[in-house]
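Thread: DOR complex, take 2
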Amino acid sequence: QVVDAQGLHVLPGLMDCHVHFREPGNALVETIETGTRAAALGGLTTVFDMPNTNPAIADLEMVEWKQKRASETSWINFGFYIGATRENTKDLASLESQKGVCGIKVYAGSSTGSLMVEDDASLEQVMLHGHRRVCYHAEDEYRLQERKKLFCEGMPYENHRLWRDEECAFLGTRRIIALARKTGRPAHILHTTTQEELEWLVDHKDIATVEVLANHLTQIAPECYERLKGFAVMNPPIRDQRHYDACWEAIRNGVVDVVSSDHAPHDPELKAKPWLCCPSGMLGVQTIVPLMLNHVNEGRLSLSRLADVMAANPARIYGMPTKGRIQVGYDADFTVVDMQKKRRITNDWIASPAGWTPYDQVEVKGWPMVTIVKGRIVMQNDEMQGTPEGELVNFLP
Ligand code: DOR
Ligand code: ZN
Ligand code: ZN
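Output below.
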């Protein structure tokens, strides 16, 4: 196996720490096999899968189910989250130490699925069980419901961002930080989106790490809703220019530790429904690397900063295996990219059964050419190679 990397860049294996692969429960839009195939085609060597499946991953039986399924069908390194519920608090410490478990995920505001812990007392209990960094979908549920009532039926898509408002995210994030301080348990704040959150988090980096999504670094409201309607709806929502600029500022000033996709496939027929009836989330695992390489080419971040937020920082934050003093993720995981290649993203390139991307017809400069997992070529020039031999990630205890 020889890779001619003349004129290409060899990056550490890029990771997407936030994907929803829908298995078990909805193989019509994604499975571990199709999702990790899409990831490899898009230049990723590792993914971490969210627990809001059907049934959810919230007890030992489902953890074992996921371990087995991922070992048999994943193309790349695979980690997955445990969903916190009000019922499984006491088991969280033992669940989070199971093989392949990258951490605990808490929904402090409602989203797809039924995992939600929203009251302070229950959230505090979650913080007191286990020891790894707790990952939060931080939105404020009460505020959410109140806004939803105010902005109801008959609204155009463009107004989606009104009821999923800025204050809702900021309230959620402040609450999680207060709990982290009270309990001493570090938090990882998923998909921060607002200027207020990001500026405020500057003073809380000792207790919290921060994720921003590629979607929020690439799309801007209201343009995206006018063009994509329900296909641009996600939680937290795509926001306007002010917040877009704040997300980029936070990438440059170091507040952001991790950039992920929040790949959340849904049936395109459901996404075409009127707003409030259409599910939240868009596909993204296959397009995150091309989009971020394009951002590098457009001067928004450097290639080494990209390697920080998609490889080095995630490896440190989630506790990937170490080599000597440096956390390196896994041995011989590489993403080889062509920074000069111009190419159009299209729906027919998408490997997920859901079969669409919000970036259809978008032209980018910079493309993943080869994905190497533990020294094996898994993808080269758009072709998958071999069989699904990906393994569960062994996280540090
Ligand atoms: O837009 C979203 N979609 N946000 C979430 O938090 C969940 C996700 C999904 O699973 O569909
Ligand atoms: Zn979320
Ligand atoms: Zn998510």
